[in-house]
Specification:
The protein has 587 residues and is mostly helical. The protein folds into 3 domains: 55-287, no CATH class; 382-508, Tetratricopeptide repeat domain (Serine Threonine Protein Phosphatase 5, Tetratricopeptide repeat), CATH 1.25.40; 523-583, no CATH class. Helices cover 51% and strands 4% of the residues. The chain contains 20 helices and 4 strands. It has helices spanning 14-22, 47-92, 94-105, 109-113, 117-131, 134-156, 176-188, 204-218, 223-243, 253-260, 268-288, 337-360, 364-377, 383-394, 398-409, 415-427, 431-444, 449-458, 488-491, 495-505, and strands at residues 527-531, 534-539, 566-571, 579-583. The strands form 2 sheets. It has a two-stranded antiparallel sheet with strand order 1-4. The chain is globular and about 85 Å long.
Amino acid sequence: MPAKYSHVKKRQSPKKQAKRDQNPHQHKHHEHDHDHGHAHTHAYPGPQVDRCVAHATAMAKLERTISRILLIRFEQDIARLFSTHLYYVALQHLPTFVIRCITVGGPSWVAANTECDEIKDFLRGALSMDMRQAGDRVATKSVLWTYTALRHFAKSQGISICERGGLHSVQLLPHHAALVAHLASLKAHHPPPFSKPPHLGPMTAGIREIIVACKTKYGKGTDWQEKVREGYDRLCELLYRIASEFDVRGYGLLLREKLTEKWCDCGCSTDHLSEVCERTVRMEEEESGVRSGKEREWDGRGTGVSGWETEDEEDLWHVDFEMPGETKHDLPDEMSVGELMELRYMQAEREKEQGNVAFKKGNFLTAIERYKAAYRIEPELPHYQLNLAAAYLKLNDFIEAEKACDLALGQHRSMKGYWRRAQARKGQGRIDDAIADLHGVLRLQHTNKEAFDELCALDPKSTEPSTAVPSSSTSIPSSSSSRPQPSSSSSSSSSAHRLSSKSRYEPLAPRVKPLPFERSPTDDRKLKISSIPVTVDIPVEFLNVPTTGPDKGKGAPGEGQASGRMVSQTFAYPCWERYMVQRVAEQ
């Protein structure tokens, strides 16, 4: 795997910098330090100049095609690799979850309560924390895989590959039409869904683990085993269904920004990528040899689970982040990638907690600044934008509230996101859009009475909730485990209206196959799933280490340089390991 594709800007020489300072109106297509052939002194451009302009235009179109291919294949890699991760979650973590639930609720509790909000919210929270890592874990490999595919295509067309510089994009110019065709084929299957990879086997190991763990308590009978197996199967299906609420197009923001906003039209970005990746490709070929079929068009990873080598696909969420050869001894003043992610989350949560304190005091402007700071630190967790939306709603700034909800819903569609955007759109007088968002709330939680009462207040003539997808100019899926806040109109609803409303939002209930056995009295127990807080001691010097930007990770004390003073940080976040399942006492 190549070194992190960081795209560090090249330092300008003093002479060139002075020349640019003297002519502030000089055309700056981008900040790389080389001549693009844009400047000329011809009063009357001749045929040669026209050819240069045409070549530059063709190169720009080619580069946009290449960057788009990189981006879409990156999103498909996230979907494929996260689908693989979900498979391992189902094998490694869901059995423990089932055991903890049936210990409190009985062997059939999971099967009877798979659709309850408590289980769904637990899965949403843990998956959200996993998705936040998608960009860091997938970006480097995805770029390498897509370069490999471009390289295979080039070799299939008889293009020679430079040993040191790799594939030069100008060599692909005569084959731009083929690249456009490949891009069209990628778009035809986009966005990719999360689904169980077909080449991976059934999850028999998971159910076997549950049965072995429960035999001591329930004996060797088959009746309870059938109930446990039914619950585990339904939970695995629910895991992929909840994952489908997330949208890969909202993650991997660092690479996405590079490919959409900072990709150069002249070809230097592709050439730099080739130079970085070519060494790794040749090294792998020397170690493993050239696989059969490697030089066919578009052979390679990144086109869904049908890509080569997927039968041995690793779970990237359970491998070390660090690059080969990197150790703390080698980089004494930098933090590891894994450490940075933990510190980044703690810093963002600290900002959020300060925002929550200000929000409770009614200092909404201060809360907004703190929530913005949290989002700058951790932009791939949507709940900071949802907090922002709540503060903007308090200030009646409905436009900014809607923008914040759009960003959150662009990662994960959630009840809170749709609810708050409905309030923002209602405040702008956009009733139809608000109604569409309320339908979104009811699709995720069909029993949400507050959303249904609000829907009836906005559209009293409606006899049945629509099943249309909520419209949004910029959004696609986001989420938070919290439920929508009750509206003032809902509290005044009569009990008769509550009874009549149930039959009207019932069509939005998920279609669940009936249980193959009778419900048990223990299936009606209410269970609470809560995260277990963790306390860590952090050197005080680490608290001010930047976790974003070009200097991220720099400034951490090296070996023997720390003062020894530590500060304790306690925080809780949803994950697959630290949680407890408790029975809620009946009122």
